[in-house]
């Protein structure tokens, strides 16, 4: 057995058992991947994959155990490469940050310039997407870390650490009726009052949308959501032209920048949320990754992060 066979098995699983896609991602031929997997199975003396004719349909029970071992082996191989890079080229390399648009637009501009000043030879890339996609990028080691509000803390294999807490903000044009409310009335705005107006807010995968839906559900109210978008800039644009009340993450509203809009607090309606940074459990982190995480949140010191990454995964609880 060899590392190439391990890579073929791992990539086949990642590509939903599609040998053609696995071969394409590995820059090799589909027959070559198929042959290597069969030889590996023969060497082990067990079937790793369930088959229907020539097609792979899933993992056998032994295959699930083999997959877990291969993941551990390949993680340690990748760790060895990172150790080499850390000591051979300590302040050089690449850093891939998986993040939502909100974090790319409003959080990271406060951090990236200082990071680049300290590590000018590190190439930084941003990989944007929804939280579920970001989690997969980190799990598959296509990104070094992910920053988002949803999903990360619930994803097995990831360690999610808090970066900052936030609440939703309502955004409306200056001539909207809600702007006539006193400060006290705005802070006590009800869901029933809010539901009298059309609403523009996030897609269901982003920025606390679940909390918005759950709040209206608990109140027995069906809001008139006329447009959903994946980023706050689009929501603010449509709020500005009067399509509806925008509901966005508070970090995305700045009165100095968003002069055509008025912001109203909505934390009392939709609760408080935490944006987290997630890394893969058990990986070796380059020095500049530790530095970036502390720049994101000062309490995320090297010792705190290293201890979190090294901790074994919590046991999976059986459903009651």
From TrEMBL:
Lineage top rank: taxon: Bacteria
Domain HTH lysR-type: 1-59
Pfam families tied to this protein: HTH_1 (PF00126), LysR_substrate (PF03466)
Cross-referenced InterPro entries: CysB_PBP2, LysR_HTH_N, LysR_subst-bd, WH-like_DNA-bd_sf, WH_DNA-bd_sf
Keywords, in A-Z order: DNA-binding, Transcription, Transcription regulation
Keyword DNA repair assigned: no
Classification via PROSITE patterns: HTH_LYSR (PS50931)
Membership in a protein family: Belongs to the LysR transcriptional regulatory family.
Protein name per Swiss-Prot or TrEMBL: CysB family HTH-type transcriptional regulator
Annotated source species: Castellaniella daejeonensis
Lineage: Bacteria, Pseudomonadati, Pseudomonadota, Betaproteobacteria, Burkholderiales
């Amino acid at each position: 057995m060899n590392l190439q066979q391990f890579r073929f098995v791992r990539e086949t699983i990642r590509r939903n058992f599609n040998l053609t896609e696995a071969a394409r991602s590995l820059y090799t031929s589909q027959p070559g991947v198929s042959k290597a997997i069969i030889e590996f199975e023969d060497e082990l003396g067990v079937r790793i994959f369930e088959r229907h004719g020539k097609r792979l349909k899933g993992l056998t029970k032994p295959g699930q155990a083999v997959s877990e071992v291969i993941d551990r082996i390949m993680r340690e191989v990748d760790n060895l490469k990172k150790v080499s890079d850390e000591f051979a080229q300590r302040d050089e390399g690449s850093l891939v940050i998986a993040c939502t648009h909100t974090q790319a637009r409003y959080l990271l501009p406060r951090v990236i310039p200082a990071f680049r000043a300290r590590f000018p030879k590190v190439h930084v890339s941003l990989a944007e997407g929804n939280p579920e996609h970001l989690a997969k990028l980190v799990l598959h080691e296509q990104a070094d870390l992910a920053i988002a509000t949803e999903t990360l803390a619930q994803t097995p294999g990831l360690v999610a650490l808090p970066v900052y807490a936030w609440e939703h903000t309502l955004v409306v044009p200056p001539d909207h009726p809600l702007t006539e409310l006193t400060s006290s009335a705005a802070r006590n705005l009800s869901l029933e009052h809010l539901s009298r107006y059309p609403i523009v807010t996030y897609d269901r995968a982003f920025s606390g949308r679940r909390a918005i839906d759950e709040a209206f559900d608990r109140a027995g109210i069906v809001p008139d959501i006329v447009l959903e978008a994946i980023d706050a800039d689009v929501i603010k644009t449509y709020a500005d032209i009067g399509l509806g009340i925008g509901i966005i993450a508070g970090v995305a509203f700045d009165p100095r920048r968003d002069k055509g809009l008025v912001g109203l607090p909505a934390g009392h309606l939709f609760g408080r949320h935490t944006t987290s940074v997630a890394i893969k459990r058990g990986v070796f982190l380059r020095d500049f990754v530790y530095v970036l995480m502390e720049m994101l949140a000062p309490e995320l010191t090297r010792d705190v992060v290293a201890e979190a990454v090294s901790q074994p995964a919590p046991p999976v609880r059986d459903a009651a």
